[in-house]
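Predict structure. Chain length: 275.
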Amino acid sequence: MTIKLIERGETGKKKFVPDMLKRSRINIVRLPSVVTRKIVRWHDKIPVALLPVFDLRTLFPNSESHFAPTRTESALLYFPLFCYPISMSYIIVGLGNPGKEYEDSRHNAGRMVVEALGKKLELKAWREDKKLNALKAEVKIGKEKVTLLLPEGMMNNSGASVKSLITSVKKAEQLVVVHDDLDLPLGRIKLSFNRSAGGHRGVASVVKNIKTEQFLRVRVGVCGKRKPVDVVDFILKPFKTHEELTLKKTIKKTVEALVCVVEEGKDRAMNIYNS
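Prediction complete.
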């Protein structure tokens, strides 16, 4: 994310700022003069620039009095157009094991969901990215650019495919990891942000590689009526015939949740799909 902040002291900007304000809505908030310079605050998906101006009368000499705080106060202009986002796209990763022998297994539920999302968006083909060791696709959900990723390494090494894409905690907040969850019954999904891996080795690999837990996890329930004795054997086997209809509905619901995350934000999606 690269930000262009228009400051009072920049050459040639004094006339430009009022012209922009004439075409836009702003809110002016009075703050103590100790507030100096805050560049960006994120409110969900919306970039917001904060511009400190110690005496707005120098910028708006003909404005009404409520636009002119005293010289000992600061005013912050809440004005999204001061931000110019260059790159702000979600990365949605479907965890699973590659290969025919695993494609229908419970452990591949996350991968199934992201593949289904690609189909819903009429994705024509996945591109092999050898550097990431993953299948990759660039799509759009609404007006948002989204990267879909299917790691081609084994589940326990999933994080290696994500590492070079997530280089900061801020970028991690745009990461969505979809995976199977044995603690949830088949038919249920749950969205979690900034939580531990919970024993899932694929998620643990992601955390280890990007060095933060501050990303969104979409957990897809795969457990039957009872928890299995042999967990590894259970998750590596396909779903049973009588579970296929529930699985299909679950994948559809999870795809809808992912679309909601991108279009309306994670908090809204959590309120809807965690209930």
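Summary: The helical segments are 16-22, 109-120, 169-172, 201-210, 231-235, 244-264, 266-273.
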